[in-house]
## 1
Amino acid sequence: MNKKIYFDNAATTKTDEKVLMEMNRVALENYGNASSLHSMGQQALEEMEKARETIGKLLGAKAKEIYFTSGGSESDNFALKGIMNSKNKLITTKIEHPAVLRTAEYLKEKGKNVLFNSVDEKGIIKLDELEKNLDKTDLVSVMHANNEIGSIQPLKEIAELKEKKDFLFHSDMVQTAGKIKINLNKMNLDLASFSGHKFYGPKGTGILYIREGVDLIPLIHGGGQERKKRSGTENIPGIAGIAKALELAEKSREEEMNKQEKMRDKLIKSLSEINKSKLNGHEKLRLANNVNFSFFGVEGESLITLLDFEGIQVSTGSACSSKNLKISHVLEAIGLSHVWAHGSLRISLGKNNSVKEVDFAIKKIPEIVEGLRKISPVKF
Amino acid sequence: MYSDKVMQEFKHPKNLGKIDDADAVAEEGNPVCLIPETKIETKTGLIEIKKIKKRDLVLDHKGTYNEVSKTFKRDYKGKIIKIKSKLGTNFLTPEHQIFAVKVPKTYHFHLYKNKKKLFPDWFHANELEKGDLIAYPILQEKKNKKYISFEQKRKKFDFKSKKIPDKIKLNNDFLRFAGYYLSEGNIREKVGKTYLGLTFNLKEDFLADDAIKIIKKNLGIEAKKKKREKRNTLIVEVNNVWISRLFLKLFGKGAKNKRIPSEFMILPEKKQKSLLYGLWMGDGYFNPKKPKAGYSTISYELSQQIKTLLMRQKIVPSIYAENEKTVNGVKHQKSYRIHVGERKSLERLAKILKIRFNVQKPTVTDSWFDSNFLFIPITNTEKINYKGKVHNIEVRNKHSFTTESLTLHNCGDMMKVYLKVKNNKITEIKVETFGCVSAIATSSKATEMVKGKSLEEALKLTEKEVADALDGLPPIKMHCSLLAVKAIKKAIENYQEKNKEK
């Protein structure tokens, strides 16, 4: 069997072996319940607090500002619903991950004033629109970088607006942790969401950063774990795993991102040479591991299936590949027409990818695009 | 998601490509699917789709105007779907996509209690049934025009009339007067004596006075009030050629062609209330006891514009055309009735009309608004045989447009079939497909299944047979994938048609 080339690291990553070993150790040695008063319970608690400390340091936050959750979606739900429970106005963007978007729509249905800020054709938030609508806003939620097209959002500029208007600022940082240097305190964020499995950590683990003094109601009620903010017996092996994963990712971040950026640029350069192709997203303000291309007259589901036959694992924003035959909301928000959006392809690189794999994809993609165009009645 | 057979067929597809010297060709899923008379909402009013040109601005499903980038037409023979709602009736090909909410049939009661949970989506015309909800966009464009400018060029015999201001304030007063005029006004054009007249009921003295006051204040012209006791009318006469010309320019010539200028249609909703007040006081009625309200006009365009204005106020309108008729020897022209009967809507309208209104009886609520759409139920659908031209347009960026009663998508699936026929048998067949895994797999399978068969046998091929041969398809993919079957049949029919002529 062909060796698979995994180019879908924005969807999830392969868990690092060192992370698994750490989780294994914790699960076998410290399996006590952190709420128990006996020594085994206390050891588990210690393990967890050590992880919290590590994560706080890596993200520029106090340990007590770190809350463990079950993943990115829970963190986003927790932040938005927890804050908006007693508030009225929320501004977010049209290109957020569904975990934010659907939650915002839900809040809107519940009668909250929710605005969906536009983005430009490169997928960067329109700041003038945000500034114009900022009056009486309670919460602004803008992702750090987009999962589909990799556009990095100007969080610094948005945080600066806090000097003029008083609002809480949340960011979904699921795609950027371990890829871009994050200092939550300096970035002047009030809330931030993270997910372990996007940086080679375990699935089902997440973090919500809540700045000290920010009050929100819990999403999950129960035994009062996580300082009464998030109940449920703590997933100590998972927590140790996410901390280890973040530590490893941070340690190799600069070197790794340099490497991936070079591979990304090589892909972009080669794919641009295909007739009637176009890069989606921003050329510069872009995640080091994200490539998103559209090929006119080609349908994305067919494209990724043919690539799968070659062992290459990628994804598409084509309507045909979605559950409801709708094109990706992100591609729609950047104003991509249906024919172009149909032919979109996302490659997201990771630390396990090699230049050799990139070269193989560069050879295969044009062949497959050409083949599909040959049998397509869409002429251009 | 797909069966092994679908994947196998996709991996090793047959008969893909084209035949240069084909005996017959057919396309399927082309975005050309409305009958020529279908009226499309554009920035300058409703235009029949056959008359729509490139660069016309049409209303999209988000309530904004977008440029037409392409127009299409083709011959069509087959079923078309008639879809009727309170906003009107449209005829379209079965695969055309409509922005709507599919209501599960067991869900009716629940739905009306949880209507806010509805999210519209695109559905094929033939999937929709009575009771499903059309999502119709509310015009979102907004521009607060504060003045109307009007150039007054003197012609012969114009010396009698006093000039009016070049820049006329477009304020609430003017809009109220515009409403009176649209309902009750007419213009006589005679050399040296051109005048604008408003005909009120004798009881409507306060309206006549209001009109006279506005003309004086806004345009600086004195108007006369004349009582015609016998006819039970009260006439306000404005003897001024400039005012007459201004109103002709703004509102069209003759009662049948009356219309609201496009820049009035996008004024802020608050200002438009004055226009609605004027219109309703003129030709409308409001019966708080029934309760119901309505407006009647012989201008099709005006009736559609009032629909748009009402929707901007979140008032649910319904429109009926009443055919020409003779009552007591008096001939009535074809007219359009706008009806308001829903409670919340009546409350809103009463506020605009400054009428006191407390609902006693509960009224039926079957339509409602969110911030972007009016959700209005389909009252009837029907399949009809049709032969003739069908049209479609492609819209830049938004890929949707609006007819008088539906929100439509302009995007189609794409498939093209080529045939070679010898001795009444399909000797060669090729297909070009722009589509997903299942579209390619079914194209391959379907062509394989008819290859070598007689035309009559091939025509018997059903969509189900192809789907079954592939161990089934995901339900959502059925429609677009099985276009191949339709395209093959169409190609055969094209071949038979062509050879009959010979």
## 2
Amino acid sequence: MFEKVLTKNIKIPESRDISFYQNTGGYKAFEKVLRNMTPDQVIDEVRQANLRGRGGAGFSAGVKWSFVPKTNEKPHYLLCNADESEPGTFKDRLLMTGNPHLVLEGNMIAAYAIRAHVAYIYIRGEFVEEATILEKAIAQAYQKGFLGKNILGSGYELDIYVHRGAGAYICGEETGLIESLEGKRGWPRIKPPFPAVAGVWQCPTIVNNVETLACVPFIIERGASWFKSIGPESSPGPKLYCLSGHVKKPGIYELPSGINLKELIYEYGGGILNDKKLKAVIPGGSSVPVLTADEIDVAMDFDSLAKAGSMLGSAGVIVIDEDTCMVDALLNITHFYRHESCGQCTPCREGTNWGERILRKIEHGKGEMKDIALLEELARHINFRTICPLGDAAAMPIESFLRKFRPEFEAHVQLGKCPLNSNL
Amino acid sequence: MPFIKIDNKELEVEKGITVLEAAKKVGIEIPHYCYHPALKIVASCRMCLVKVQGMPKLVPSCSTTVYSLPPEKKIDGKYDMVVSTIDKEVKDAQESMMEFLLLNHPVDCPECDQAGECYLQDYSYQYGKGFSRFEFEKRVPPRKDLGPHVLLIATRCILCSRCVRFTQEVTATNELIVKQRGYKSEIDTFPGLSLNNKLSLNTVDICPVGALVSKDFLHKPRNWRYEKVKSICPGCSIGCHIQIEYLAEKNEIGRIKPLYHPDVNQWWMCDDGRLFYHEYEKIERLQQPQIKTDQGHQNVNWQEALPYALEHLNKFSPNEIAAVGNGFATNEENYLLKQIFLNGLKAKTIGVCDHYIREQDVVYPKFIIKGEKLPNWQGAVDVLGSENTLSSILKKIEKGEIKTLYFLGGDPRFELSEKEVKTLSKLEFLVVQDIKQSALTAISHLLLPGSGAYEKDGTFTNYQGRVQRIRAATVPPGLARSDFDILRELGQRMGIKIPLQPRGVFAQLSAEIKGYQGMDYASLSDGGMLKSEAPAKKTKAEVVE
């Protein structure tokens, strides 16, 4: 039987309080690290656990940490990416509201591992309540001596700050986040150099997602082998799935990595809202390629979804029923990326705007067949040619919607109107 | 050193150089907009994408550096890197980038100052489609007055951010920003600021399109109509390398742009220097020789004026004669002055005019504007020595020791105080060879209309001691002549043999003046030469050409 760890106590109102957290075993892992482990041992343990980044890219956290120089010629920084903005994704928010000390403990252990003495939690501007909760939790942690100078007599020193963003999706991209934290426009940087070498203020920096860091205390406490025993070996561990769209029981589900998507929707989510037929599922946040109803018998882990032609991304599962116009859905997605494009590089800045306008034209019944071909070409011209993955994020839905639901687009052109949205 | 292949060209280059720069070395131009060698690399225009064998996707050549591979991993057994700038995928990317950049562009080339030297035009021809598939209304951001010299025609902007980076990195004045986001992004000034730093017009030079335009050049004749000549800016003692663009038929300068010189001005020049040619429009130019008579100044021709000068100068004993050279005169001109007075007239007193504008240097992180507002102070001192100056000569005039003075001018902003004019009016014979009507010309006995800095050929020596060639663009107005010609004819009339061209005079000068030994026009070339680098080998002075 799978035991929930990340969200175990999340419904208990006191779960935000440090004494509750400590009474349920909290901060033991951090203590263990401070007393018994060297930074390299921590990195090793996390690497052994094969904890893969929960923000979407799925890069091994332990390997990432090991890129940080072993010497402290410059200060090192840990940045916790709490800029959760991908449509369909709302898991980090829950962790921060329901289990803030777990998030903090993850930060503390990671900071210790990479020899950082300052950590920033870069939180999405709209998360006002979450920021307040974190601030309170941080104050409690200082009070109890888990933060500040000479933590628990170990000589280790750490400060954690909450930094609120101003509401931009692009600041969730790690180098955009770094620029924003430095007080500049959230324009992603060209890589290399990677943040582990030259990140915030050109110092070695690790950027980790909230959920990624929340897994760390359990890895330390229970060991890498426990973590690896959950889900597939290639991407193990407990995982939060965000279920939204036309599903009876939307919400956040903590389940083993690699849960079957169909099972997630029908067993846990209770099936399609109003018992309609399923048309499509976007399995990992709005940017990943869409799956048709026939393609959902797939394990929700990085490799299985890649094999199925999509991505796990942020595990934001968006369920789409038969009455949804896919042109409209794509228009909505493309509108989002047009609005959030930072404007730095040409293909994304110009392409997302052009794409949205073509889609609007088609959805409103004014489209021509050449527009569909143009849209397809457009996606190809954006994909893999931008500085950061936002371009790819805008292009992948266009490409996959056109490939899998082309007849719907053609029907719009042929009918001169949207077959489903009669009020347009 | 890595051995790489770019298209069909093989080359050995140092590790760490960018692919774009490596390609340049073998004559392959990779199209680019945001990349500028002086500025931080941002790789945002995506125009320079190339294919590098082994990389999963196209990479920007401006930010991708050349690396070396271990022997066993070399491509085809010998290459460290194999790059294609002509691959089908690259061509596709280039064409699509052009399409993206032109989606909202107004294509108003017929009224755009940049037309003819515009990278959007050039790359459109080379890499573009030739037509647009964009059917929607174009974005029309408003044009903005960014500062005293620069206008932004935002519809033409491609957001390469070169101008923004310039104000961040070169001047650190940070007047320019990108505001808004995504396709609404626009260049603008930071709230409350104006693009009023002293290097602001360089942003117009580095703008690859017609978005930033110079108010000074706005709606002037098309840029290809101008004759172009390489010269040195006379605005201060830096001696920035410039290109003067002028209309020969109108004898009029259209604009001045900096030319790259690694050790003098890099890519830049200051706005004051760039607009310095207007100083000559503000003054009333002397156009004809004049002799002072009881009825006031009378126009004469050169055949009368020069003998008149000699006739009167010869009346004085050598001790009573003085001449003043100028930091606005070329080395050759000052040298001729010296020949005439020290050798010809055996005069004892020759000096330099020390009345010129001196300000504080203006220091930017990557450029310093010199406060000495004259181009050839160093050269004038080298040639004429620093023993005497106009100030010291004025004292001698006051004491009655000096009775006649030959003043060589050229500074459009030259001013004298009332007291100094009063002193000079004690002279029995004052020859003024200058360019503008002034209190000085009013008291002169003989007036010889000379040339402005853009009308001269010769050399200036900058504050570093770098001897640099200047070249004439326009010709002096009316009967005015180049200072070189005036002095040469004066010398010839005294029986001194003088080469026809500044080149020949420079050969004589370099044989004689310390620090210039071994220099000639060929070795100065376009870049000039530091005195400390002079070959010192005595070249035989050229005789009359």
